[in-house]
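QUALITY CONTROL LOG
STEP: pairwise intake check
CHECKER ROLE: data steward
CRITERIA: each record must contain a sequence immediately followed by its structure tokens, with no blank fields

ENTRY 1 OF 2
RESULT FIELD BELOW
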Amino acid sequence: MNRRLLGFVFGLAFAVAACGGTTADSTTTTAPAASSSTAVSAPSPTATTSVTSTTSPPSTTTTTVREKDVLEYGQWILVLASLPVDEFSLKDAAARTPEVDGSRVLLSSDYPSLNAGYWVVYAGPFPEEPTTSACPDDRPEDFTCYPRFVGEAAVALPNIVVWTETGIRQISAVTGEYVGGSAELDPGGIFVDRFAIAEDTGTVYYGVGWEDFWYSCEASRGTVARVDLSTGLTDVAYPGYNPQISPDGSLIAMIDSSECVPDPAQEGWWLTPFDQIQIYQLSQGVAVPVASLQLEGPMDLDNRDREVSNMFWLDNRTLLVFQWDGTVRRVSIDQPNLDTAPIVDRSETIRFPVTVVGQDVFYAAENTSGPDSTRLYRRNLTTGEVTATDITTDAWIIGSTNGADYVIVESTNIYINGELLVDLGAEIWAVGW
């Protein structure tokens, strides 16, 4: 297993398919920021319906058939749920609308900015991009809530950040060409985790590990460093590992430990149970603590399966958190007790989650043998279906913050959604998107 997976091992949806993507073959575009001058029509207070009344004295029977909404381009919606059209009917989707007051249904295929092939249960429309504070409080637990643009135009995908022998650089996810200059990177350790990018400030955060991390309490917790892409200046930002920046770029989360204890079985060694997630507000490069999400302790040092192994943002207020025993939880950052967060999946095979794309988790399976031992697997959190991919554990795979697209890096090659973008001709040591 190469240094990438070693770094990952050290460092170790409900995002909805219609507008966030669920499969590797889906092609989804993200939305431009809406302008306040965008002309939109006033939303109808009710969905379009067709009503047929048949009267046969002495009784009256009324049948209502729900039709899909047709929205004028240039508006925004909050996606609550999406149902594949090859599995569900409009009637099925409409049956979910009474669960959220005022919600309606549209067909994603009618809008180029959405991923085709889904009935979308949504709230809105809105003239400008809504915040998550507009999410309905009465939505069911299996509903999500995030904004999507309905229309034709879409902004380019965010730049990819790679680290090669020429330094750390940005690459256009559309053209595959370098963007801007390069900056030197001195990682300070030997294991470098994937990059988390704060686009507004041009700063990249990454986890650093040491081969002999068990020899000190501080090193055993890991370190999150940051580098300024314009200057190449690097400094230590936080303790912990696996930094993840929220989709809107306002928050950064990382896995950390509330304590480190001497290893009773090995003198001079330290054990660090990773039992918490620290969240900070990013504002002009200054980190302000926001929340601390904690597992109930103390941790059993002889059985550490409850520890946090990885996490990914679902939206700006919600994390998908993985534990070593295969438990997957949907965690609000306003909920400090991780043990009480809803469980969305439990699979003993998901020990090494690599990334999340839509409702699918890509992971390296444990205790595999033979030709499949180098493959990544893909598990759908809704259906539980597992498939073996052609992606090897030597590759990097990272989902975009839009919840739909993903990048794969193998050796010198970069792929977007499975299609070759560019061959850089230089070994790629780390990547972020």
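ENTRY 2 OF 2
RESULT FIELD BELOW
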Amino acid sequence: MDAGTYAELSESDKQQQIDALRVLAAQLFEQAIGCSKHADVVFEFSDGSRPVSGHSGVLCAVSEVFAGAFRSGMMQEGVVKVPPGISLTSFKGFLEFLYMGKARDLKHCRSADARQLVVLSEMYAVEGLRDWIREHGISEANLFAAVEFALVKEGDRTDILMACLRTVERLDLAMDHFRDEWLRGVGAHALQVVLAWITARLSCEGLTRRHVADGLRLVEQWFLANRELIGGKELRRKVQKLVKGLDLARMTRAQVEEVLAGSTCVVGGALLDKRCRRLAVDASLQQELELERYFEHPPPDLFQKGRGRMGAVAVHGEGESERLAVADPDLESVVIFSVQTGEKVATAQSPHVMGSGFIYGVAFNEAGELFVSDYYYNSICKHDQSGGLLATTTGPSPIEPCPGELRRPHGIAFAPCGHLVVADTGNGNVKIFDGNLNFQRVLAPGHALQHPLDVSVGGDGSVAVMDKREVLVFDWGGECLRVIAMEEGRRPLCLAFAGWGNLVVGNVWDDLYRIDVFATWCDSG
């Protein structure tokens, strides 16, 4: 049937013709893989075997390379040599595409190694096969092999790499999804790329410690699948690199110990090497808290210049009216979010000239008004619920100092009575103001502080002060109740009273962040 006759057919007749051709193609393909006597070409593999055959007419119709070889007499006695390194499974997939075209349900193609299919499509100039691979040929079973092939330096295989990424997203793959046979023979770099993709996707939803633990188990699974194929020292080095690429700081000590208990000495050693050892031995967090929501405020024009970062936070309200205030020290503002929706609802801007202030502490009073400390302008600002400025303290007088003046204020917190407690860092003390920013008194004036940076007030009026290398707890009258000295080398960063009366202190040591909980009524932490 010529093209003109076909064009005159109705749509149903056209479909019947297409279905008939597909049946014919399927029958010819079955002849080919069954080495039928009606096939006039045989394919010879590097081991001398001839397990499949073909039809020269079909081969010449779909590949000019095959047609040219037959015309030139290169195919003597109808024997076509298969390139070395091509498996029987992959070559059957290649033949299936030659006979059936871009059909979705190509079972032999799906079982084939995508790398070998790309090589065959390039070698024999078969149009459409590479497109089919990108659209339908990459699955969880051959994902790692396809990634490894796409990362080869020779040739541009960016399209294959992007198809692999889409497969990760489309199949919603997790780190505990892969079988041992899919990992066998896969290079560490390909595994690292897939781990990074899955981590990036999970980060959008909320990357948890459980996901990181699953990543460690995947590394363990890869090691077990390849330990007989890769040399000892080389394999150990690759495992250590993979482990270090995971966000181990998200894991609890119990989770690290659980992974260690079931791991080989190589993966366990990678967990306990230089960077990871402190986490496994020293991590003290015992409870896993799942990430519930992200709050984002990206000002691209400023962040692109390296400005903008998160400072102190404060929360006020309940239910739909619950709000989260986040200080941005560099941008001299406080962004207020709805906790329920995550949307920005207000901004409290510094009243001073942009570029000269430094927002540090934030706190809500009972009425929901926001108080902010400005480190460089030596002041406290009071804002209404929409971010509007209501009042501010005056800075230091260059002529005569007054009792309530502030120098480099940092952390602030409200007491149950409604008074504001301020860590007056530059003056080395803690000051108390009423709700209208009227100075009341200095807390514990007889107690010398070195560098008070943060404060928190308990339900009974106890005031915790974070000093240089220690935390001090005072009663509301100013009597020192307890001094908590940090361990050698540790530096406190922030503190807060917990709902049950204990004091929670965040501290850092040698780039390791730790949360400690102290009882405020006894002598031990």
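INTAKE CHECK: passed for both entries
DESCRIPTIVE NOTE, ENTRY 2: The chain has 18 helices and 22 strands.
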